[in-house]
Amino acid sequence: MTVERYPRSAxxxxxxxxxxxxxxxxTGWWLLAGREGDPSPIARLTxxxxxxxxxxxxxxxxxxSLAPLPFTLRGVARFLRETLRYDRxxxxxxxxxxxxxxxxxxxxxxxxxxxGQRIANVAIxxxxxxxxxxxxxxxxxxxxxxxxxxAAVHRLATIAFTIVIVGHIxxxxxxxxxxxxxxxxxxxxxxxxxxxxxxxxxxxxERQPADAPKTSPRAR
Length: 220
What we know:
3% strand; 63% helix; two-stranded antiparallel sheet; 10 helices; Fumarate Reductase Cytochrome B subunit
């Protein structure tokens, strides 16, 4: 038995964002490590300097992030509503999170996202906006105190964003025992085992229409 958590359009949008973002982080950390004069494997392969590749990837992220939004306003509104919700018991859920990531015994919550995901969503969106804004500013300001301040903000945002993204990947890949199986919600057709959905998102799972298809050839 399986259930679909995200529509195909959301999965494609998510994939486009993370592919560009991971490439952007890779080139950004290469430059942050002070290796601008030492061409990265990507620079050697393309013959394009790392700084230019990083700038192009930054603009690509702006386009990939913003271009689909006018066509997905309902999905954006739903994402914001579910991310910014607060329910009684959320703090208790967070307190019980450390042992739950090992045992899989999560407290009940009613949202589409669990309280931990909501915090991660806010951090990712805020840091991503900060990275994009400071990155654009760096292309417009070439030197001086403003450049130094913006560069420092961009550097700190990169470090914070990397930490959050690594945590997100660890959870989303199902490496932690409590989150085993969640990777299917965004990959391989996007269908999640029903027992996994009930364990991690009980309120959301119970709200799914009774006549919604719950079986799939991918189910085991």
